[in-house]
Write a structure and sequence with these properties.
Helices cover 32% and strands 22% of the residues. By secondary structure, it is an alpha+beta fold. It has one domain. A six-stranded antiparallel β-sheet has the order 2-3-1-4-5-6. A hairpin with a 5-residue loop joins strand 5 and strand 6. The longest helix has 14 residues.
Length: 169
């Protein structure tokens, strides 16, 4: 059985659960993770829709764009990016699997989504490569959490994870 829950990512001086916008979400499942350059990630398993609904308020409160990924059994993720001004983008990671779960098809074209994501990134002070972002949005790994981590790297939010050396090699 995989992970069911929501990842929230935002930039702030303090961990995201300290903000009023997330008060109704309850405590996170694990301690907030510092991703570097002021970016934080927090995960909630039982927050339900309250965490997703909190995105616009969290963006305003942090004065920075935020991201959310609602993960379904580690198979796919419903991803939303929101800016403090209210602009948003929406995508599925592992889109075909999301549709198998009953997610409604998204009507935007891939180039339109890429434009929206790059605008979001620019408002966050990031300058990701368009090809890297497009590849991350289209990637498919065994677990969607790996695809999510790849998107954070492509956007410039998180550093790539270096493989750990194995003993005896």
């Amino acid at each position: 059985m995989g992970f069911w829950g929501r990842f929230l990512v935002g930039r702030s001086q303090s961990p995201l659960p300290e903000f009023a916008a997330l008060r109704d979400c309850g405590p996170p499942e694990v301690s907030p993770q510092a991703l570097g350059n002021g970016w934080w990630q927090v995960s909630y398993q039982r927050a339900g829709p309250s965490a997703g609904a909190a995105l616009p308020a969290l963006a305003v409160e942090t004065a920075s764009p935020v991201l959310s990924a609602y993960v379904l059994d580690s198979d796919c993720a419903d991803v939303v990016g929101v800016t403090p001004s209210g602009r948003r983008w929406h995508a599925y990671l592992h889109e075909h699997t999301a549709e198998e779960y009953g997610a409604p098809p998204l009507t935007r074209q891939p180039d339109e989504l890429l434009r929206q994501v790059l605008e979001w990134a620019a408002q966050a002070g990031l300058a990701p490569g368009p090809q890297a972002v497009a590849a991350a949005l289209d990637a498919h790994h065994t677990f969607v959490e790996e695809t999510w981590a790849g998107l954070l790297v492509a956007l410039g939010i998180a550093a790539p994870v270096e493989p750990r050396p194995r003993d005896g090699s």
